Fold Peptidase M48-like protein.
Amino acid sequence: MTLQGIYYDGQSARAHAVAVELCDGHWQLHGLIERREPVGEVQISEWLGSVPQRLQFRDGAYCEVADHAGLAAVLSAAGRRDRSIEWLQNSRRVAIAAVLCLIVAALSAYLWGLPLVAKLGARMMPQRVVEQVSSTTLQLLDRQLLAPSELPAARRGRIEVAFARLADDDGSRLLFRSSAHIGPNALTLPDGRIVLLDELAVLAEDDEEVLAVLAHELGHAHGRHGLELLIRGALLGFVSAWWLGDASALLAAAPVVLLQARHSRELERQADAYAVGRLAAVGVAPARLADVLERIDAVERERNGGPPAAASTGYLDSHPATNDRIERLRADGSP
């Protein structure tokens, strides 16, 4: 079988039309160029789409053959080459299957691999590093968002005594601050320290509601959720920055925010579950957490001037819909 090819001598860009044959163990070129080379001394490039294949000679010259099917037939007839690799590279079905496998692998890594790595990393992180991160975070918050607590000393003392009973000597510490910027809330640092804001203590109907929120924060501390989120954010940020290359920091951070939201909801549910157990141990009904959540929800609606926070905003909502949490806590105390 004779194929049509274009010959280049490797010294100039001048092209020569030639006829190409494979016979008696030799590649033979006929036309303005006559050449005969043993098969073993000629390298053949792989079949990649519509790109002509090359017969590469040792002296730098080469011959391009655009008839892939014809060249495949010649090689097959001569028993010279297994073309399974080329078939895989040029198969549309194989390409689609490979893309689907890549998507499944990426989703699996995000849904199961990332949480597992973050959880293991949070458990294995040296305590010295955890304390340093927590202290730095608290210093930053104190400079920018937090102010000294103005709760009466007697109220702080009662809350501290109740908290010690709730924590049951697990090493957690309670700090008091205030913040007009954050509003009624409590924060858990990666090392387990919990910051109670005056605004929450004032909003709560009694100390049991404060204790209910602190039980929820103890769930975050017990599960080392703060560290998990830090590790997840760092890993997602690294992947985003690598994927986006030289894009701005804003573009690199956006995917992290979007991807992180689902995990935040999962951790909130875990913290609710832990709170139910701890509150039961000290004789406080889980419904007290539901009560204070409703009150916080009302304040947030007023502060934001938007739709009720109790309504779920979908996948971007960083916490479970407040109504869902309240219903679970009041139904049977099992988030």
About this structure: The radius of gyration is 34 Å. The chain has a mean pLDDT of 82.
